[in-house]
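Predict the holo structure. Ligand: iron/sulfur cluster.
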Amino acid sequence: MLEGVPSFAVSDVCLKCDGCCRFYEKDSCWRPRCGEVEIKAIGAERIDGRSYIKADESDGKHLCVCLEKDEHYCAIYTSRPFECQVYPCVLMKRGEKVMVSIHLSCPMVVEYRHSQKFADYEKQLREFFSKPDVKNFVKQNKHLAGDYPGYQEEFEDLFEVNI
Ligand code: SF4
Ligand code: SF4
């Protein structure tokens, strides 16, 4: 797990939201993909050549196996995959470039996008993604960058990861 990932968590907003950790399709583009070291640490499921965090089907949804659904928390929070750590940001594939993009549909982003809190968060993100170990992680795990077909209008690119 990379150290010092900036967090935009506002727990009261997340606790009222079921936007994360549940996926309608087994190969949903929202289901967190796993980096190579994460596959060994937490296990993963291979679908069409990609590694996703494991999920079980329940009530028509695929729930991440790490979600404590009654208490609404992540059982592996301190070692959750990189994709989970950076959300509501994602790594976005733009041709050969990898961008850091913000998901405008996340209720936290809707509420805070134009706040000083978000400006501070973006500053921390830029510093984080300029670190050599983080750039190296992204370079070795370029498959984590998605193209999110059908959802492109829900993203705003923030900056490019120079790898
Ligand atoms: S979609 Fe946003 S507000 Fe909802 S649980 Fe995920 S991070 Fe929290
Ligand atoms: S690992 Fe944790 S944060 Fe990531 S999808 Fe599963 S329950 Fe959610």
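The mean pLDDT is 89. DSSP finds six helices and ten strands in the chain.
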